């Protein structure tokens, strides 16, 4: 388990001080894929550097399996750091070394005999799907292939934790998806805990089970991805989930209801079946729904028919649907 407790980082600046992390509390259980999402300047990079103690927190603790990283001697810290591997946006491969030699590098440093390191590196090349690239140089690889080699290198020290710092931000959407699949596969097969640091919702939606929203150095919300993204409770959460806000069309309606989709059903069949099962047509005034793992989340504003009996029928029907909650919007003015 990884526990960040009251993690605070204050930088001295010309004007005084700047608080980049402000009492961050996050608990990540073993084997999770945990997303930490925030806009530019939220403190993500500072948090990453504090987790592996490349940066010393001003206050607070980083506990890994109950052991406080901030209390370790420099030697013990170097040892412990091997259990946390990182991959980066820019891959950070050594360009003058072959792929095999890049993967062997952390093992060389740890004193693993060359033959054993080479054998392990070949296994890792196989694991990341590039067994034929052992003798290639990074310059000969695509971005996605470079990240695969970087992942193989990160796994060479048999880490317990893989920290992915904007690892797919330099990749196109298709390659991003394939790298995320690989990370997910590694998490499942090797049981490695993964921390995904990103500014991209899609990345968190794609592979994370839990998420923390970081804003101005503070954790604003934490929970399962479904919980947080379906119903963001803070302004920072809403900005991330609905960057453009809920878009409404100018139709004026007497009665408006807001439907929240909490997964399990899709909004399109609901509106269609309202028409088919009840013979009631409604206006969709605005929708901001998202499909997460095949389930609908988000909210939709519906204008009910002016006929009271039809409106009541529609309300009863919607209330009877699973995974959907409904409330009347009293102050809607189109
Ligand atoms: N050494 C430093 N001295 C002073 N301020 C710093 C220092 N390092 C970071 N900051 C400030 O802390 C805040 C958080 O920076 P950080 O790089 O952690 O954010 P981020 O979420 O990673 O942003 P980005 O996605 O743009 O990289 C920023 O306002 C930054 O200017």
TrEMBL record:
Gene3D superfamilies per UniProt: 3.30.70.260, P-loop containing nucleotide triphosphate hydrolases
Keyword annotations: Amino-acid transport, ATP-binding, Cell membrane, Membrane, Nucleotide-binding, Translocase, Transport
Residue ranges of domain ABC transporter in the record: 2-241
Native organism: Pseudoflavonifractor hominis
Recorded superkingdom: Bacteria
Keyword Translocase: yes
Molecular function terms from GO: ATP binding
SMART domains: AAA, NIL
PROSITE patterns listed in its UniProt record: ABC_TRANSPORTER_1 (PS00211), ABC_TRANSPORTER_2 (PS50893)
Name recorded for this polypeptide: ATP-binding cassette domain-containing protein
One Pfam entry name: NIL
């Amino acid at each position: 388990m990884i526990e960040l407790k009251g993690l605070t980082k204050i930088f001295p600046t010309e004007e005084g001080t700047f608080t980049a992390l402000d009492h961050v509390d996050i608990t990540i259980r073993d084997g999770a894929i945990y997303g930490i999402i925030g806009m530019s300047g939220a403190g993500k990079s500072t948090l990453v550097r504090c987790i592996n103690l490349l940066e010393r927190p001003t206050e607070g603790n980083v506990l890994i399996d109950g052991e406080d990283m901030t209390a370790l001697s420099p030697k013990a810290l170097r040892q412990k750091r091997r259990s946390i591997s990182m991959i980066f946006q820019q891959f950070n491969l050594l360009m003058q070394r072959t792929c095999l030699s890049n993967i062997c590098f952390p093992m060389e440093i740890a004193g693993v005999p060359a033959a054993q390191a080479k054998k392990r590196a070949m296994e890792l090349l196989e694991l990341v799907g590039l067994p034929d690239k052992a003798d290639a140089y990074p310059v000969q690889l695509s971005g996605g292939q470079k990240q695969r080699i970087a992942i193989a290198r990160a796994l060479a020290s048999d880490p317990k934790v893989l920290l992915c710092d904007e690892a797919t931000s330099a990749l196109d959407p298709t390659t991003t998806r394939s790298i995320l699949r690989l990370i997910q596969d590694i998490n499942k097969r090797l049981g490695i805990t993964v921390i995904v640091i990103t500014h991209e919702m899609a990345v968190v939606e794609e592979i994370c089970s839990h998420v923390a929203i970081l804003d101005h150095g503070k954790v604003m919300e934490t929970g399962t991805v479904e919980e947080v993204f379906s119903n963001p409770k803070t302004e920072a959460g809403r900005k991330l989930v609905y960057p453009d806000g809920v878009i409404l069309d100018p139709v004026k309606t007497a009665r408006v209801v807001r439907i929240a989709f909490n997964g399990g059903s899709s909004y399109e069949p609901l509106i269609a079946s309202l028409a088919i099962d009840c013979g009631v047509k409604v206006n969709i005034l605005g929708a901001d729904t998202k499909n997460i793992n095949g389930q609908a989340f988000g909210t939709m504003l519906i204008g009910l028919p002016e006929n009271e009996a039809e409106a009541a029928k529609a309300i009863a029907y919607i209330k009877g649907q699973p995974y959907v909650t409904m409330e009347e919007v009293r102050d809607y003015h189109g």
